[in-house]
Amino acid sequence: MKDPDILRLEATVPKEEAENAEFLLCGLGSSSTLEKPHDDKKFVTVVACFNSSERSEPLLKLEAAQAFKAFPGLRDADILVQRERIADYTELCKQHFAPFEIAKGIVVVPSWERYVPRANESVINLDPGMAFGTGLHETTKLCAEAIESCAHRASSMLDVGTGSGILAITARLLGVRNICAIENDPDALEVAKENFEKNSCSDILLAQRIEDAGLGFDLVVANILLPTLIELRDPIMKRVAPHGTLVLSGITPDQEDEIKDAYGRGFTSSEAKRRGEWSAVIFRRG
What is the pTM of this model? Predict the structure, then answer.
């Protein structure tokens, strides 16, 4: 981000609701999220960062409180918003972001960690940075698992809402050669570009609009909230090749039927996968 300041939101939530809080905050435009321990072990503090030029502190607090009403366990969350410099957030990330496995044999490692890969293990070098999508969220893991299951038969992939680029990089390490990543946020777009370069994936095509992507992708992945999935239905569906696979996440189990109704007519089969309180629906063309 060019602005040296960010709006840092801290929400104290029940531990089992942390993933839900993170994803809802990302839906409001959070540029990155992480969790830090709370004195009461039943709770965690979710930290989310926002562009300071887009809204005031009181407005952000109000929007977060309204978004949290979607989950009963979040309705009483204690929310604090304050302005701070990016360097402070970077130091916080170093305390709470450690290496983790995003797919079998693929480990995400922040730049400040010294990590020696095991035999047959690949590494993604990626910092939490100013873009959501480090892979910590359930929806990102659902998408990574889906990519892993079908990468062997996919030569091309479209990643809609790439964020930090982690799913695109994961797909490359799993053998998908031709990848296009879409991201409409300029700051996240720059982060994705840097992460692709850092991980020897500079040839992944980056674009701000899905209309700038080609057609006929063997695999299309979109990890975004339901309203945007509905809004982008037609351009997303157009880009799935015959016999291709579409993975949609960022939805809750009670939204699965709505997604199937919206997309199902263009595919021969669908199945839902779940992690925690989140779902991914996988569509396939015959």
Answer: 0.78
